[in-house]
Specification:
elongated, 5 helices, 138 residues, mainly alpha
């Protein structure tokens, strides 16, 4: 058994440098690539507004499939004042999909790509479920 005098002490100055995994490239946690869910949802919004004008001719149920949170705001069970309904509905039309994109971007930045898509779907379908529940309560 070697004596303690013959064992070399390791210090931090003599340690071997670790190799970087990405070939020396520094990857930031965020960056513009992690913002693509928000950018896609921002790009979808004008097309969804156009589709809403067509679906409004089919009736409120078809419109609620595309914009459920607008129908939640319009629900008589919430007792929103009538003078606020028009403004609040317009805000929800233009902010619904960007808010989905923001939720998905926050999850996407944590390297949970499939989970980000699922969270966007859950947000949309929870709006649909809210429409059904509020229609039952009203």
């Amino acid at each position: 058994m070697p004596s303690s005098a013959t064992v070399k002490q390791r210090n931090s100055a003599g340690a071997k440098p670790r190799k970087k995994r990405n070939g020396g490239k520094k990857l930031g946690r965020g960056g513009w690539k992690s913002l693509w869910p928000l950018l896609v949802c921002l790009a979808i919004t004008p097309f969804a507004v156009r589709a809403a004008s067509i679906l409004a001719l089919e009736g409120p149920k078809a419109f609620a499939l595309l914009y459920p949170w607008v129908e939640v705001v319009r629900s008589p069970a919430l007792h929103v004042p009538p003078d606020w309904l028009g403004t609040l509905s317009q805000w929800m039309i233009f902010l619904q999909y960007p808010l989905y994109g923001l939720l998905m971007t926050l999850t996407f930045r944590a390297d949970k790509h499939l989970r980000a898509f699922i969270i966007g779907l859950v947000a949309h379908f929870s709006g649909l479920l809210s429409v059904v529940i509020l229609a039952y309560l009203a």
